[in-house]
Design a protein that fits this description.
- The complex is a heterodimer of chains A (about 120) and B (about 120).
- With about 120 residues, chain A is mainly β.
- Helix content of chain A is about 0%, strand content about 50%.
- Chain B is mainly β.
- In chain B, strands 2, 5, 6, 10, 11 and 12 form a six-stranded mixed beta sheet that branches.
- Chain B starts with a strand and ends with a strand.
- Classes of the chains: A mainly beta (about 120), B mainly beta (about 120).
Chain lengths: ~120, ~120
């Protein structure tokens, strides 16, 4: 399997601009997760897709954030009107449930810096 | 709600010494437990996982972890640390049963290895 890929790896933007990140999961993985990691912290769950359906969103995900997974393959995470507090590493993970067991595999992340 | 505590923010060991990283979790049902490792600026790599069965699990790079239900712990160990093990380590708990596998992470433990 090729691993989870994310693009871009780094993004610098000015406050108020919109940004979009892409995640390509491991092929045949039907579940896809987005997490956010700020400096010195562990990743925090943002949202989850099973196939193309977005089944849960964290309260961390404000109205400025939107995620899609058209056709149940790649996913995009868009942040509108970025704020300095959005600066973080955005991690994508994918998985395929086998029975009651599920292991998430992470991509390299997209590091966002909002100036 | 599930939670994870990693009591040690930073640990320093000498190369060749043994290592134990602590992890305590809180979860009302059967937990699924994971250890991931993260090098600076990179994504998360899975070291090992516990779903059920033998409470001592083996992972990659010579790591192992022991699940102790009575202590709500899942400590990571390695008998002899190599300089390349220097990284940040995250313990995570996932929901078992039929729910989806959102992970809750601890704050992480930074491992420094002295030559």
């Amino acid at each position: 399997d090729t691993g989870v890929s994310q693009d871009p790896r780094h993004k610098i933007t000015k406050r108020g601009q919109n940004v979009t990140f892409r995640c390509d999961p491991i092929s045949e993985h039907n579940r896809l997760y987005w997490y956010r990691q700020t400096l010195g912290q562990g990743p925090e769950f943002l949202t989850y897709f099973q196939n193309e359906a977005q089944l849960e969103k964290s309260r961390l995900l404000s109205d400025r954030f939107s995620a899609e997974r058209p056709k149940g393959s790649f996913s995009t995470l868009e942040i509108q009107r970025t704020e300095q507090g959005d600066s973080a590493m955005y991690l994508c993970a994918s998985s395929r449930r086998q029975g009651y067991q599920e292991t998430q595999y992470f991509g390299p992340g997209t590091r966002l810096l909002v100036l | 709600a599930q939670s994870v505590t990693q009591p040690d923010i930073h640990i320093t060991v000498s190369e060749g010494a043994s290592l134990e990283l602590r992890c305590n979790y809180s979860y009302g049902a059967t937990p699924y437990l994971f250890w991931y490792v993260q090098s600076p600026g990179q994504g998360l790599q899975l070291l090992l996982k516990y779903f059920s069965g033998d409470t001592l699990v083996q992972g990659i790079k010579g790591f192992e972890a022991e699940f102790k239900r009575s202590q709500s712990s899942f400590n990571l160990r390695k008998p002899s640390v190599h300089w390349s093990d220097a990284a940040e380590y995250f313990c995570a708990v996932g929901a078992g049963g039929t729910s989806y596998g959102k992970l809750t992470f601890g704050q992480g433990t930074i491992l420094t290895v002295h030559p």
